[in-house]
Design goal:
Layout (H helix, E strand, L loop, with lengths): L1 H25 L2 H10 L5 H9 L5 E8 L8 E7 L7 E7 L13 H8 L4 E5 L11 H15 L1 H4 L1 E11 L1 H14 L1 H7 L12 E5 L13 H15 L26 E4 L7 H14 L3 E4 L19 H17 L14
Parallel strand pairs: 3-4, 3-5, 5-6, 6-7, 7-8
Antiparallel strand pairs: 1-2, 2-4
Helix pairs in contact: 2-9, 5-7, 7-8
Length: 343
């Protein structure tokens, strides 16, 4: 009797494993669920340390609805309280998460530092994959830009001075949106919307982005599995790097001199370092203005999205450099000091 039960149990396990294997072969969902489970979550100590660095005097209006028919079309608006109702230059930020996870929540400390310098800062939400696929996030960020222009007086937006920023997957989405804004031919050929910004974009900030799809083929081991799983979920193509339909998402191949002046950075330990370097080289070759920050002498612990951990000297130096870049290209009518000025 016990032998029969044991055989049945083994058979059930084998059938379950076979079913999971077939599911993983046919769908990106098993890999996505595993990646979401593996995704690093800040410890209570890290959260407490970052909250201690959060500047005061910044108000936040959360979950402003951009599109009532799209549950993920929401934004958070950060404003320096000292600015009152003044229209301020605006930085719209797109969060990371490998296209398959993450949200705008948890960005308070980082984005408040930018707002404290005299800017309106907007954190844009988008639908992660595979619930939505390329180019839906680009469309959602574009819709957020149009919304901000249409409601500029309500949210203190200077529509003539706008910038886009993003980290990791958000850097790809922000960069592709910027390409659509600044290059009508690219937008038309790629089938992307063009936000109607009165003066276009004045600047772009890109951290730890995944820009060059051809580099996916060069990764090995766990890195290749992660990259291929994320791109499969985001694009719907199991071999995204070889899919001709996704040509326009391979950003370094399509940049032009019209791309807004940009600030590009990541850490030396970032497995996507070559993506940022490829994007910077391509922009420079196209005649666009690029400022980079690499920290080649830093330890490997300064890696992907290093800029978010403001406890490190490299992240603090990056914040100072990034705010200096923003100040150079967005002229606020309410110039304020921000904590990073004394770092």
């Amino acid at each position: 009797m016990l032998r029969k039960i044991a055989k049945r149990a083994v058979l059930m396990v084998l059938l379950l494993l076979l079913g999971l294997g077939l599911w993983a072969w046919a769908s990106p969902w098993p890999s996505v669920l595993l990646i979401r489970h593996m995704w690093p979550v800040p410890t209570a100590e890290q959260v407490e340390a970052l909250e201690a660095l959060e500047p005061g005097g910044v108000s936040v209006q959360r979950d402003v609805v951009v599109n009532p028919s799209d549950k993920d079309a929401r934004i958070d608006v950060y404003r320096p309280e000292a600015a009152g109702n003044a229209a301020l230059p605006t930085v719209v930020w797109v969060h990371g998460g490998g296209f398959v996870t993450g949200s705008k929540d948890g960005m308070d400390t980082y984005l408040a530092h930018i707002a404290a310098a005299g800017y309106t800062v907007v954190a844009a939400e988008y639908t992660v994959a595979p619930q939505a696929r390329y180019p839906r996030p680009v469309e959602q960020v574009s819709a957020a830009l149009d919304f901000l222009v249409a409601h500029a007086s309500q949210y203190g937006i200077d529509t003539g001075q706008m910038a886009l920023g993003g980290d990791s997957a958000g850097a790809h989405i922000a960069a592709q949106t910027a390409m659509a804004v600044s290059d009508p031919t690219y937008a038309a050929e790629a089938g992307l919307p063009r936000p109607d910004l009165p003066e276009g974009l004045q600047a772009v900030v890109l951290y730890s982005g995944a820009f060059d799809l051809t580099l996916v083929r060069e990764t090995t081991g766990v890195g290749r599995w992660l990259a291929e799983s994320m791109m499969w979920a985001y694009t719907g193509s199991k071999d995204a790097a070889s899919d001709s339909r996704l040509e326009w998402a391979d950003l370094p191949e399509h940049v032009s001199s019209t791309f807004p002046v940009s600030f590009i950075s990541t850490g030396p330990g970032d497995p996507l370092l070559s993506h940022s370097q490829s994007m910077a080289r391509s922009l420079e070759a196209a005649g666009a203005d690029v400022e980079t920050l690499w920290f080649p002498e830093a330890p490997s612990s300064i890696g992907h999205e290093y800029e978010m951990d403001l406890r490190t000297s490299e992240a603090k130096a990056s914040m100072k450099s990034m705010i200096a870049f923003i100040r150079a290209h967005l002229d606020t009518s309410v110039p304020l000091s921000t904590p990073s000025d004394s770092w």
